[in-house]
Amino acid sequence: QVRLVESGGGLVEAGGSLRLSCAASGSIMSIGSMAWHRQTPGQDRESVALVTRDGNTNYSDSVKGRFTISRIKDGSPVYLTMDSVKPEDTAVYYCNARGVLGGIEFNSWGQGTQVTVSS
């Protein structure tokens, strides 16, 4: 199917910027949409940004105007550019890909990358 590998997490000061990368491999042309989610301990995983293959994007209210998800380009990573970060952005960030392969829907996840924002 599709394998996802995230990178780019780390420690950043509040007000700073960070860029996360999600590299997809496998049946990448079957991907219909990609998204970034985040999760903190004891909380449900939250969707923060999504992009469809035709370029439509959607952001959660908590990151709108601060985060930007890049377009899907086969063979290139999908990026999440995080500007004006806040301590409440601290979480494990997961990349997600959805699509249809052989008539079967798939929903793939990466292993996650930690983002910590210091105040």
What's the SSE blueprint?
Layout: E1 2-7, E2 10-13, E3 18-26, E4 31-39, E5 46-52, E6 57-59, E7 67-69, E8 78-82, E9 91-101, E10 104-109, E11 113-118
Parallel strand pairs: 2-11
Antiparallel strand pairs: 1-3, 3-8, 4-5, 4-9, 5-6, 7-8, 9-10, 9-11
**Range of strand content:** over 45%
Radius of gyration: 14 Å
Largest sheet: 7 strands, mixed
Return the string of H and E elements: EEEEEEEEEEE
What's the total number of strands?
11
Multimeric status of the protein: single chain
Give a brief description:
This protein has 119 residues and is an all-beta fold. Helices cover 0% and strands 58% of the residues.
Q: Any key phrases for this structure?
A:
119 residues, mainly beta, 11 strands, 58% strand, elongated
Description:
The protein has 119 residues and is mainly beta. The protein contains no helices and eleven strands. The strands form two sheets. Strands 2, 4, 5, 6, 9, 10 and 11 form a seven-stranded mixed sheet that branches. A four-stranded antiparallel sheet has the order 1-3-8-7, with no helix packed on it. It is elongated and about 45 Å long. The termini are far apart. The model has no long low-confidence stretch (mean pLDDT 97).
